[in-house]
Write a structure and sequence with these properties.
Distance between the termini: 87 Å
Structural class: mainly alpha
Shape: globular
Strand content: under 5%
Number of helices: 26
Helix content: 55-70%
Oligomer: single chain
Strand order of the largest sheet: 1-2
Length: 605
């Protein structure tokens, strides 16, 4: 076969040299600052008028139950669409490349992102939601409209990128909530909302509000809900409103335990119920009854769960730590200690900076917290005057104080660590142990915090667990270095449990280096994947934390030749005064009890 002939080219198709001309760029005139300011003022004036109308109509409609016609709904959608477009124009004009810094600050000064969400989207969505199912079609239409607008803002107005991401998550959650016909569609939108919230958490890991949103999406997994709600309350920036929302989880267990508990395993039901009793300052007797069931079930539950415990273990560990912190109560000793230490670090940071207003003053200086830690552990005898008091048995009343809550949680926390650490050779327990070892190491940075509960830490069990960890693929030099292990594990340098641990009050700035979650961050879809390549880095991390705790020279030691851990003589004496007692309370009169005490197994089996 011959090649096709090239298309014929006629001479008249090619312009002569005299005819070739360059096209000039269209003439543009730069906009002056005065023109830009006037433009922004004009947009804002129109925006305020539309906003006022939206507020008035939503308030009127929220006070009546009259059914609206399709035309009326469409008119309301058009009005709110206009408000969203006005906001869009305002953001574009105020963030123009030639805008002055004062002009660029206007959206923040007048809280425009929050006003757009509140008056342009949220109020109208709530109005539509309360008129369901008649308003379903219009609500779907408006959700898609708002979702599209948020996507546009995310692409064009980068200054408020974090806000747009969270708003996209909220809109996806609304879309999920109104889907009742197609459960697959509902789950898809739940995944979309979770994706946006995880992106928001990546940018603002210490913001408890985002953890609260993830808690709502965790239904019906009650342990995961407890994890996210409690994390919202003990994050670096706690979300106080979660104290109301968490009751949506606790109330069914507290009010209708017999019915609700049948939907879940005994371990899950007992843990959530005990947490609810503590949170609401309920009966000590009821708490002991349920927490005893949790401890009794724990060993067998881990064995049945298999590799699933790698995911649920950190959630249980985090929830127990949140209980120790009494859900971020200002009366709690450990919570106050972390807050005070953060204040001290910020104060020292400001004093070191010649100009506190500069960016360098906002960048964390790790030498400050290390200096506080070293001075505490190396400046002479440790003052152990402030330590957690043991739980007092025989109480028939309700929890009366945060200190009392701590005294009843500590034996449970200690026993849970002992049970998990005792499962020698089970790799599924390592994420839980990683979580708890990270917590203990973070306590060492806060003067008095680790000493406060040192009597309750099962040091002998921790040493046994550390010595039993497989060192296959583990680099001794990494374990024994003072630098945080940064070995790449599978799809990235983060382990699956690093993300649940990130952003908590006790982990922020203590467990991880400042740049650990920057750069090579594991993709959101891969974070829960358990890969064989995680084994060595996870073992390395646990062993590294063990060596770090040994560097305190108070509780455990590490032999650099034999690579073995051991308890110090001081730690062995602590086992004699550790809370070996059982948490026993006599049942309240008239409960119809068999007369047996609710007992918690020994802290160290």
């Amino acid at each position: 076969m011959s090649s096709p002939e090239p298309a014929s080219i006629h001479s008249q198709d090619v312009p002569s040299g005299n005819e070739i001309k360059m096209l000039l760029q269209p003439e543009t005139r730069p906009i002056s600052q005065e023109q830009l300011v006037n433009e922004v003022k004009g947009i804002y004036a129109g925006l305020v008028m539309v906003e006022k109308k939206c507020v008035e109509i939503c308030q009127q409609q929220s006070q009546t139950t009259n059914k609206l016609t399709n035309e009326q709904w469409q008119a309301l959608i058009a009005l709110h669409r206009t408000l969203l477009h006005e906001h869009h124009d305002f953001f574009l004009a105020s963030q123009h490349p030639t805008a002055s810094p004062a002009l660029r600050r206007l959206p923040t000064k007048y809280a425009m992102p929050a006003r757009m969400w509140r008056h342009g989207i949220h109020s109208f969505l709530e109005l539509l939601r309360h008129r369901l199912p008649y308003s379903l079609e219009h609500m779907l239409s408006f959700v898609y409209l708002a979702y599209q607008m948020m996507g546009l803002l995310m692409e064009s107005v980068h200054a408020y990128h974090e806000t747009w991401i969270e708003c996209l998550g909220d809109l996806a959650r609304y879309r999920m909530a109104i889907e009742e016909a197609d459960m697959r569609d509902r789950e898809n939108w739940s995944g979309v909302a979770r994706m946006w919230y995880n992106k928001a958490a990546d940018r603002s890991p210490t913001t408890g509000r985002i953890q609260h949103h993830l808690a709502v999406l965790a239904r019906p997994n009650v342990v995961r809900q407890l994890f996210f709600y409690s994390k919202a309350l003990v994050s670096g920036i706690p979300f106080v409103n979660a104290r109301d929302s968490i009751m949506l989880l606790f109330s069914p267990f507290l009010d209708h335990y017999e019915t609700t508990s049948q939907k879940y395993s005994r371990l899950e039901s007992s843990l959530v119920t005990a947490a609810g009793i503590v949170f609401t300052r309920g009966s000590v007797y009821d708490y002991c009854r349920h927490i005893n069931e949790f401890i009794t079930e724990l060993d067998a539950y881990i064995s049945r769960s298999g590799s699933n415990w790698k995911v649920q273990g950190p959630e249980v560990a985090s929830s127990l730590i949140a209980l120790l912190l009494d859900f971020g109560s200002d009366e709690n000793f450990l919570w106050r200690a972390f807050c005070n230490n953060s204040d001290t670090i910020r104060q020292l940071q400001t004093e070191r900076s010649s100009d506190p207003s500069t960016e360098t003053a906002q960048v964390e200086d790790p030498t400050i917290k290390h200096g506080i830690q070293q001075r505490y552990w190396n400046s002479g005898p440790i003052n152990a005057a402030t330590q957690a008091a043991p739980a007092t048995g025989g109480r028939q009343a309700n929890f009366a104080s945060s200190d009392e809550v701590t005294s009843y949680i500590l034996p449970v926390w200690s026993t849970a660590i002992s049970i998990v650490a005792g499962k020698v050779g089970d790799r599924n327990i390592l994420p839980f142990m990683h979580f708890m070892l990270g917590f203990l190491w973070s306590l060492s940075y806060v003067p008095g915090a680790l000493v406060y509960l040192e009597n309750y830490v099962p040091w002998a069990q921790l040493v046994k667990a550390l010595n039993s960890i497989s060192r296959s693929g583990v680099a001794d030099a990494t374990v024994e270095s003072s630098n945080f292990p940064q070995q790449k594990s599978g799809v990235g340098r983060q382990l699956p449990e690093d993300f649940p641990m990130r952003g908590l009050k006790w982990s922020a700035g203590y467990v991880y280096p400042p740049d650990y979650f920057e750069g090579e961050v594991v993709d959101e879809d891969d974070r829960t994947l358990e890969l064989p390549s995680h084994a060595a880095p996870r073992a390395e991390r646990c062993l590294w934390l063990g060596v770090r705790l040994a560097s305190l020279r108070r509780y455990i030691t590490y032999d650099f030749d034999t690579k073995q851990f051991a308890c110090t003589a001081f730690a062995l004496t602590l086992t004699n005064v550790a809370p070996m007692n059982t948490l026993q309370v006599q049942p309240p009169a008239g409960t119809g009890s068999t007369g047996q005490d609710a007992a918690l197994p020994d802290a160290v089996p």
